[in-house]
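Input record (Table S2, row 424):
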Amino acid sequence: MDDIQLFNADVLRSPHALNKRLREQPVYFAKELGFHVVARYNLVREVLLDPKTYSSRITDFFQKPLTMRFEAASPETQERITHIREQLVHEPETMITLDRPEHAMYRSVVDKLFTVSRIKSAEGATQKVIDKILDAAGGERQSSESHPVEFISKIAFPIPMTVIRERMGVPDADRELFERGAKIAGDTLHMRMYDDEELVNRGQIDLDLQRMLLRILDERHREPRDDMISILANARLEAEDRPLTRGEAVSILRQFLVAGQETAASALGWGMLALCEHPELQDELYANPDRISAFCEEILRYESPVQLLPRIVTADTELGGYPLKAGDVVMVRYGGANRDERTFEAPDEIVMDRAKIGMHMAFSAGIHYCIGAPLARQEMNLGFASIIKRMKNFTLDPDKPEPEAEPSFVMRCLRHLHMRFEWR
Ligand code: HEM
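Output record (protoporphyrin IX containing FE complex):
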């Protein structure tokens, strides 16, 4: 297994063959990187269901490259960034990088934003967003010609971006800044490197986004409406018998931007690619729209928008007979688990009537199970139902570059998907 290359650009673009090799043993130790990797379904699940032994205190993993980049910047850039940071209201960690009991404290507040009834009652609003975005996809409605569209930027990203902005309650007037800030928040998971000017630029947008969210929180505190910001602006942390601070509220909202857009855009993108590559799926879903939900679950399993996240071992233990020490870092590969041949028959195929549909761990498992899963499922189900109902004959655009995945360690997302379609 010495030839395994976790950071090879081709592997980052398509990790499935690597995952298969990683599953040959319970845990793989990446010597030169100093971390362990787990990709088998039962072992990934074991880790996720034991948050006491496997901690989510993983801020360093995402922060370290940023800190190193800051230290490598020119003194002038450092000064400008420090000046920006000094103006930020402190945003404490909430949810994804916390363990119990703090995690449970915040999660109980955020659970109120994603209740089944709240999500269900917003179905009409999500549908409206989707209809509007599809209407703008291009081409004459009556013509039987095939129309070109770049699906990722025109459809896949705008759907979750608009839905979350509306659900949060960010007004249309703030849309531009919100979208710029949301894009930068989403980039956190890519851990990219930027030049000095871009670092400062991104820092300033972060600050502008925070100021905007704080302003809306204050407005909704005074005059609540039916939106997420209003609930957070007036929420209490029962465990500490105090109101949620403005910094905590912004931290929670920012997490929705980090975790809730590119993930959903990715799922929509991979679903559309599957439709382009498998015309028989298009026919099957048109004839049987009740199978769209199974299709969405299979896409989540098959491509897993979040490929992996780390956990930190808190006490000496063993995983599948493999010894781990306190302090060890374990990379948990959801994407590897979701194609484990021990759990799923024909794991490398989209099988809509498989027995274990929905048993995937694309949304994780245990206490950090994706809080936005019902919203993401709504976006996917309504999105594909509308696409299948209103459009047909999806093909890749032969005149444009082929679809290509973003080379990313954590995420699995298409950079672009140039396709053609006809209106029904
Ligand atoms: C297809 C779309 C999505 C996928 C594949 C996805 C995936 C995930 C995964 C794998 C985790 C677990 C992290 C862990 O194990 O530590 C997670 C957590 C989370 N997700 Fe999602 N997500 C999606 C959509 C969303 C949406 C739409 C939102 C909100 C608007 C959202 C908000 C969150 C938050 C706040 C957490 C942290 C939960 C916690 O730590 O308790 N996600 N998501």
